[in-house]
Amino acid sequence: MRDLNGLIAGLLRDMATAQTSTQSKWGYKRAAAAVRELEESIETRLLLDGTLRKIAHVGPASTRIIMEVLATGASSTVEAAVAASPKRSDVEKSRLLREAFLSRAQVIAALADPGLDGPTLAQYRGDLQMHSEWSDGSQTLDDICQTGIKRGYAYAAVTDHSYGLPIAGGVSMASLAEQHRDIDRLNAAYDGTFRLLKGIEANIRADGSVDMTLDELRQMEIVVAAPHSVLRSPVAQTGRMIAAVSTPGIHILGHPRGRMYGSRPGVSADWAAVFEAAERFGVAVEIDGDPARQDLDFELAELAMRAGCLFALDSDAHATGEWRHAETAIAHARLAGIPAERVINCWPLERLLDWTRSQTLAHTT
Ligand SMILES: [Zn+2]
Q1: How far is the CA of 215 from the centre of ligand 1 (A)?
Q2: Nearest alpha carbon to residue 103 among 3, 1, 12
Q3: C-alpha of residue 137 to centroid of ligand 1, in Å
Q4: pTM (2 d.p.)
Q5: 296-313 confidence digits (pLDDT tens)
Q6: Which of 52, 98, 197, 291 is the most buried (most CB within 10 A)?
């Protein structure tokens, strides 16, 4: 699958890395982000006179690089700058960490492609990873209800960080009790229109244990458990991830690798074995649609599908402007050919709640 926008965005980031002035670094970075976020393939912006239709936040220096790539498929300007830069090895490392990421244009193409099986945006009923101002997000619980309704969803899970992750504003159990009262009040107000789920993003520690007790997890309607440490080690952590999915009270394995676009490889593991365990313990694996995460991506998701896993496709939104990141997750699921039936976000609310309750009970008796 050819992704010119992704290729160009990567080269502009390499160019940013090779700059010495903060200002030009910032200019190339901003241009890279703008190209990655374009809704259409950049070729369609070529005008008849051979110039490029203006892209917001892309200046003349970046435009010259884009034109070079459109003409030759590569950029000698970028390659020369990188070769002369003391940051050359950083660029080389970064290039290896951009595999299987989709640009926004590819996301839109995958959503519209009738040749792909898999869930459609219309089948998607609610987002199951979402942060509010109670932890490190900026959206209020009411913003979540309003935005969910606007997008035609039936539900959303509020999954702020757990107390084990103070760096991300992890919420105490006392605050959660308060949050649950607010959720009850909002659910009563939006009754029949929209439903908030009491959730949490628990932290998977380095040894595979989760930072909350079973009693605490059972106070939640839905639990996402995700790794936030030891995300750069090349040593396989299969045992850690299997321990996590076999923990009672867990529903979703969130951003399973914890990788970051161009900068962090994330957990390495025998993923076939991890997915087999997830299937056995009935834990859904997440496709986190944050553009910098895209974790799982379509390649690993296909492996999880063959293992028989359930999937959660989530935005991981921290602000109302980030809800469309769910579309990135849906695009990966479509590229992997995951049937909508296996996607818990495509289930009606009652079925979803029956499943989360039975998951919790199965592990506690
Ligand atoms: Zn997380």
Answers
A1: 22
A2: 3
A3: 12
A4: 0.96
A5: 999 999 999 999 999 999
A6: 197
